[in-house]
């Protein structure tokens, strides 16, 4: 893969908050439809990376998406390019119904003619949500709220789905369900960039990955290569 043909190409990226650098000289790329993960410790800068792609963090360098430069672009313009971001912590609108939460995901494409079909695809993927369409999202379990957050993002029909710690705080059974969901989404042709502390989950679903330490990418390779790497096995897989 070359950055010239990549769906997402990040080069020489520095980013941080209030003048404090968090990411340093990041280089990362991925093709259309590819499933890539970023693994690392809790303070490695994984969430900052996704927030920077979404235009929520000041940055220097280049983030190219389908040939469009994202650095300096207002964050509210990013979804319209085909990038959907599921932040850590789910962030549903608790007093709104499940249906209202999911439908909000299509706000930036509200004129699209296929919104009903998009909604139906989400409900087919998450049948539990169909049973709870009129229920307030804040009354759902953590796993169900994560389904709402992912379903809301999929209403955009994104070219790229950014997933930030989707398994955090969830029961193992729900994590297994999400594992299957991510693979289903990937098979539709949607590219996924997943950041996870759950390294086992990340490497089981992604085709390749990057290791982020203290804001710098220190390793990259296929998921099989990273799983077999002694440093990764010791630091992140507990082996």
Automatic annotation (TrEMBL):
Q: Which GO terms describe its biological process?
A: L-amino acid transport
Name the SUPFAM superfamilies on file.
P-loop containing nucleoside triphosphate hydrolases
Where does the record place the ABC transporter domain? 8-239
Top-level taxon of origin: Bacteria
User: Coiled coil: which residue ranges?
Assistant: none
Q: For this protein, what is any one GO molecular function term?
A: ATP hydrolysis activity
Spell out the PANTHER family in the cross-references.
Answer: HIGH-AFFINITY BRANCHED-CHAIN AMINO ACID TRANSPORT ATP-BINDING PROTEIN LIVF
Q: What is this protein called in UniProt?
A: Amino acid/amide ABC transporter ATP-binding protein 2 (HAAT family)
Lineage here is: Bacteria, Pseudomonadati, Pseudomonadota, Alphaproteobacteria, Hyphomicrobiales
